[in-house]
Fold this sequence. Notes:
This protein is an alpha/beta fold. It has 2 domains: 49 residues; 251 residues, 2-enoyl-CoA Hydratase, Chain A, domain 1 (Alpha-Beta Complex). 50% of the residues lie in helices and 16% in strands. Strands 1, 2, 3, 4, 5, 6, 7 and 8 form an 8-stranded mixed β-sheet that branches. The protein is globular. The termini are far apart.
Amino acid sequence: MRSYLSFETPVADIDARVDxxxxxxxxxxxxxxxxxxxxxxxKSAKTLAEIYASLTPWxxxxxxxxxxxxxxxxxxxxxxxxxxxxxxxxxxxxxAAIVGGIGRFRGSPICLIGHEKGDDTASRLKHNFGMARPExxxxxxxxxxxxxxxDLPVVSLVDTAGAWPGVDxxxxxxxxxxxxxxxxxxxxxxxxxxxxxxxGGSGGALAIAACNKVxxxxxxxxTVASPEAAASILWRDSSRAQDAATSMKITAQDLLKFxxxxxxxxxxxxxAHRDPQEAITEVGRAVxxxxxxxxxxxREALREARATKxxxxxxxx
Length: 317
């Protein structure tokens, strides 16, 4: 059964009518019914395109979080050959919120790292909804250093509401682990590309996204804090998340304008969850193009370009 977001009600109404007519058409062939179904299907597609052409920041937040949107494991299956996951931080434990390993992208070896939220209750609990603890970021740093040693490009897929805020994470040095991962990301002598495929929340996202090229899917979000958290901080009222989302400039379109990201990856009409395979293919194209642009740069040039890029953010021309 199809599900719809709250702002997709006009499309849901049309699709419900189409389903009714199809049920009637199955009982007997009717040319008039088939013509009406065709007309309504076209109207549904047009209405969906019109809605998604003018989404508000809060609506984009809902799309970025919607069930069915492709996650890390989906991108691995769709883009990577011979993927070998590497586990553990060699200090405390394995953290399934961040998954990483070595594989082949378009025939060439790369290191792939990313957040995994899970697809059902069991997997979401296993992956802690994509919110990593310190050992997740230490694992990410370990894998990036491994990639640097063997001159492998690093691709990061970002999809987290933020780092895990629990007492256990703070006891084990969450802030230091995030800072360390960010430092390793910035210091790499190999090309690195990050793609925000859903939510990019706070330092939990930046820890693996301080890359030469930072891309965002069209309806993803990239934030200093979740809209709900920002509303709680600013107004002590999490119900004002919609206001916070609008004020924070969290969409790909706004962030490209400000120079925070380097490009926007188009999504299928109606969001990546409506055609996951097309979304995965578009991400593959964008990552491939970004790696091609960076491929001829020296190690020092890559570091310098990365540092210049981030130091320039927020400065007036």
